[in-house]
Amino acid sequence: MNEKNSLGLDNCFKDYENPLELFKEWFAEAKKTEINDPNALALGTSTKEGVPSVRMVLLKDFNEKGFVFYTNLNSKKSNDIKCNPWASMCFHWKSILRQIRIVGKLNKVSNTEADLYYNSRSYESRIGAWASKQSTILKNRDELLKSIEDFKKKYPDEKKLPRPDYWSGWILSPTEIEFWLDGDNRIHQRLKYNKISNDKWEKILLSP
């Protein structure tokens, strides 16, 4: 018989008051079993008119302040965020039959944080950040490849390759975090944390 936590859920939900502690444990479990990109998440944004968009991005950091990903600041997602900073994230890990949904508000990371992550990337990836005008229309693939080669000529020294001012990170500060565990006959287990103050959360159970 599976052990239960104080709310009667599977013990993998633990009894943390802070959902970041539970996220850390579930993320560590996913890293052991997911074949590709356990840090992949579906990011949902919308325009100021409420038209939604969703795409996969990679989580690059998380801490008490929130969840961080990096992108071109002129991309579709970034333009959505500039108009409407509210967004959602969804992690789905088939290997452990778990899912985490997060809702919150996005803000840009500091230049220092963006520089630190940018400089940790490979030379080719950093060149790509310069060469790709993300989400704009290409005449053909060769246009992009030529841009890559042009920037390699402009910045041949990988130690002297600055971060473009239009490339940075966004951090989602969560107001809601929901943990989901697959159940037999679609009777899933769901635990939701709602933020009620800077350092306090309330826990509620949700029907599957």
Q: Could you write a compact summary of the structure shown?
A:
The protein contains 5 helices and 9 strands. The chain has helices at residues 19-33, 76-83, 111-120, 123-131, 141-154; strands at 40-46, 52-58, 61-63, 66-72, 86-93, 98-108, 167-181, 189-197, 200-206.
Give the CATH superfamily of the domain at 11-112 and 170-206.
Answer: Electron Transport, Fmn-binding Protein, Chain A
The tally of strands reads 9
Biggest sheet architecture: 9 strands, antiparallel
Low-confidence stretches: none
Helix content: 25-40%
Named CATH architecture of the domain at 11-112 and 170-206: Roll
The global form is: elongated
> What kind of oligomer do you see?
single chain
Span from first to last CA? 21 Å
Strand content range: 35-45%
The CATH class name of the domain at 11-112 and 170-206 reads: Mainly Beta
CATH topology name of the domain at 11-112 and 170-206: Pnp Oxidase, Chain A
What's the helix-strand series?
Answer: HEEEEHEEHHHEEE
Mean pLDDT: 96
Structural class of the secondary structure composition?
Answer: alpha+beta
> Total number of helical segments?
5
Task: Tell me the radius of gyration.
Answer: 20 Å
